[in-house]
C-alpha cells in the first residue's frame, strides 16, 4: 500500500511539474509577444504617444470612383473624397449605345447626380466617362480617365464594369517621413464597427439554428445530423474562401464598403457562432426541461425561462469568442471593405480595419511607418482584451443579478 502511495505521489509530482512548466512557458510567450511589439513600435510611441489613437491623417488620400447607382431615373456617382465644384460638367459625360445623352448634373460633396433630360429606357447599355482632369476640393486630379459601363434591365443595373484603373493616388502635403503623423482612429472605427455589425447579423441566426438543432428537430433526424455536421465543416472553411466569394459576388452588386465587409464577416462567423451556441444549449440538463414540461409550460416558456438563463454564460462566452474572431479577421475583410484611410459615416462608405491596414501596408513599410504599423497591432490586442474584459464583467453581473432574483423569490 505504501508502494502504491509512493507511485501515486511520484505521478502527481511529475504531473504538477509538467503543468507548472507549461503555465510558465505560456506566460513567458505572452510577455515576449507584448514586449517585442512594444520594443519594435517604440519609435512610433515616442513620437506620437497617445495622439496616435486620435489623429486621422496618414498623409495619403484617394480620389477614386467608389460606386454608381440608379435611383429615380438618375445615376448617382460616388467618389471617395469631395470634388471641386468648378467645371465638373465638362469633365463628365453620359452616353447610351454610343450616343451622348443630355443631362443635368448636381454635385453634393463626393456624390455626383446625373439626371437625363429625357426618360431613360428600361433596357440598354449606359456609359459614364470621367476625365483625368477631374479634381477633388484640394485641387488634386483624378490622374487617369475612367469609363464606367452598366447594363440596364427592367430599370435595374446589372453587370457594371470599370475600364482602366479607377485609382488616382493623391500625395499628401509632405513626403518627409519624419513630418508624417500616423493616426489609428479610422482603423479602430472600421475594426469595431464591422465586427459588431457582423455579430448583430450573425448571432440571432446562429441562435435560431442552435435552438432548432437542439430542441425542435428529432434526435434521430438525418437532416438535423447532416446539418449539424455541415455547420462544423463550414466553421472550418478558410477565411480567404469567404473573401473570394464576397469579392466576386457581393462587391460587384453593392461595392467594396463597410456594409459589404460586415455582411461577408457575418456569413463567415455564423457557423462558428451556431456551433458554440449549440454546444452551450445542449449542456442544459434534461431534468430541468422535463420539470418545466411537467408543470405545464410550453416549449417556448421552457426555452425562455429555463434553458436560456441556464446556458447564458456559455452563450455569452460563445459571443465573445465569435467577436474575437471577427476583430482579428484579415484576408476576407481586406478583399471587400474598400481599404480607405477614413472614418466611415455610413455602411456604404469604404473603410479599413487594423488587420487589413497591416496586411496592405506592412510589405512596403519601413522606418517610422513600420513602427506605427506594429503599434497598430498592439492596439488591436488591447481592443480584443477590452472586449474580453467587458464580456467577463457582463457575465458576472448577469449571474449576480440572477442569484439575487432567486434569493428574492
What does this structure look like?
This protein has 409 residues and is of the alpha+beta class. It folds into two domains: 63-171, Immunoglobulin-like, CATH 2.60.40.1220; 185-408, MetI-like (MetI-like fold), CATH 1.10.3720. Helices cover 57% and strands 16% of the residues. It is built from 14 helices and ten strands. It has helices spanning 2-40, 42-48, 51-54, 88-91, 185-216, 222-235, 239-254, 258-282, 286-294, 299-310, 312-328, 331-336, 354-361, 367-408, and strands spanning 60-71, 74-79, 92-96, 99-100, 103-108, 111-116, 123-130, 146-153, 156-163, 167-171. The strands form two sheets. The chain has a five-stranded antiparallel β-sheet with strand order 5-6-2-1-10, with no helix packed on it. It has a five-stranded antiparallel β-sheet with strand order 4-3-7-8-9. Strand 1 and strand 2 form a beta hairpin. Helix 13 packs antiparallel against helix 14. The chain is globular, with a radius of gyration of 28 Å.
> What's the name of the CATH homologous superfamily of the largest domain?
MetI-like
Helix content: 55-70%
Number of helices: 14
| Count of β-strands | 10
Q: Can you tell me the overall shape?
A: globular
Low-confidence stretches: 165-180
| N-end to C-end Cα span | 52 Å
Which CATH-level-2 architecture of the largest domain?
Answer: Orthogonal Bundle
Query: Secondary-structure element sequence?
Result: HHHEEHEEEEEEEEHHHHHHHHHH
Q: Would you tell me the structural class of the helices and strands?
A: alpha+beta
Q: What is the rounded Rg?
A: 28 Å
Question: Spatial order of the strands in the main sheet?
Answer: 5-6-2-1-10
As for the number of domains, it is 2
The overall pLDDT average reads 79
Q: Sheet bearing the most strands, described? A: 5 strands, antiparallel
Please give the CATH class of the largest domain: Mainly Alpha
Strand fraction: 15-25%
Q: Briefly note the CATH topology name of the largest domain.
A: MetI-like fold
Amino acid at each position: 500500500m505504501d508502494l502504491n502511495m509512493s507511485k501515486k505521489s511520484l505521478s502527481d509530482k511529475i504531473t504538477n511539474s509538467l503543468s507548472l512548466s507549461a503555465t510558465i512557458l505560456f506566460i513567458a510567450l505572452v510577455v515576449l509577444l507584448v514586449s517585442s511589439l512594444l520594443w519594435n513600435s517604440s519609435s512610433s510611441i515616442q513620437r506620437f504617444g497617445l495622439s496616435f489613437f486620435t489623429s486621422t491623417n496618414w498623409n495619403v488620400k484617394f480620389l477614386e470612383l467608389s460606386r454608381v447607382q440608379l435611383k429615380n431615373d438618375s445615376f448617382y456617382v460616388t467618389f471617395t473624397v469631395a470634388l471641386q465644384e468648378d467645371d465638373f460638367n465638362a469633365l463628365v459625360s453620359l452616353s447610351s449605345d454610343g450616343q451622348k445623352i443630355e443631362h443635368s448634373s448636381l454635385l453634393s460633396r463626393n456624390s455626383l447626380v446625373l439626371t437625363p433630360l429625357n426618360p431613360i429606357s428600361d433596357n440598354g447599355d449606359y456609359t459614364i466617362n470621367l476625365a483625368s482632369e477631374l479634381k477633388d476640393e484640394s485641387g488634386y486630379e483624378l490622374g487617369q480617365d475612367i469609363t464606367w459601363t452598366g447594363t440596364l434591365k427592367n430599370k435595374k443595373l446589372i453587370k457594371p464594369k470599370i475600364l482602366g484603373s479607377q485609382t488616382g493616388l493623391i500625395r499628401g502635403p509632405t513626403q518627409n517621413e519624419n513630418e508624417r503623423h500616423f493616426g489609428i482612429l479610422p482603423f479602430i472605427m472600421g475594426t469595431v464597427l464591422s465586427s459588431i455589425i457582423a455579430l448583430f447579423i450573425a448571432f440571432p441566426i446562429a441562435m435560431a439554428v442552435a435552438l432548432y438543432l437542439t430542441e425542435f428537430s428529432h434526435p434521430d433526424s438525418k437532416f438535423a445530423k447532416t446539418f449539424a455536421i455541415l455547420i462544423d465543416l463550414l466553421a472550418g472553411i478558410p477565411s480567404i474562401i469567404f473573401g473570394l466569394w464576397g469579392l466576386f459576388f457581393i462587391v460587384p452588386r453593392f461595392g467594396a464598403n463597410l456594409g459589404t465587409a460586415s455582411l461577408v464577416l457575418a456569413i463567415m462567423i455564423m457557423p462558428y457562432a451556431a456551433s458554440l451556441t449549440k454546444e452551450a444549449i445542449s449542456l442544459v440538463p434534461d431534468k430541468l426541461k422535463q420539470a418545466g414540461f411537467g408543470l405545464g409550460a410550453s416549449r417556448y416558456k421552457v426555452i425562455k425561462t429555463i434553458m436560456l438563463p441556464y446556458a447564458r454564460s456559455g452563450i455569452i462566452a460563445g459571443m465573445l469568442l465569435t467577436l474575437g474572431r471577427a476583430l482579428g479577421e484579415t484576408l476576407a475583410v481586406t478583399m471587400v471593405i474598400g481599404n480607405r484611410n477614413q472614418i466611415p459615416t455610413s455602411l456604404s462608405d469604404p473603410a479599413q480595419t487594423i488587420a487589413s491596414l497591416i496586411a496592405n501596408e506592412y510589405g512596403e513599410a519601413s522606418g517610422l511607418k513600420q513602427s506605427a504599423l506594429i503599434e497598430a497591432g498592439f492596439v488591436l490586442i488591447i481592443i480584443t482584451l477590452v472586449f474580453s474584459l467587458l464580456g467577463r464583467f457582463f457575465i458576472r453581473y448577469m449571474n449576480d443579478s440572477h442569484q439575487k432574483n432567486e434569493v428574492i423569490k
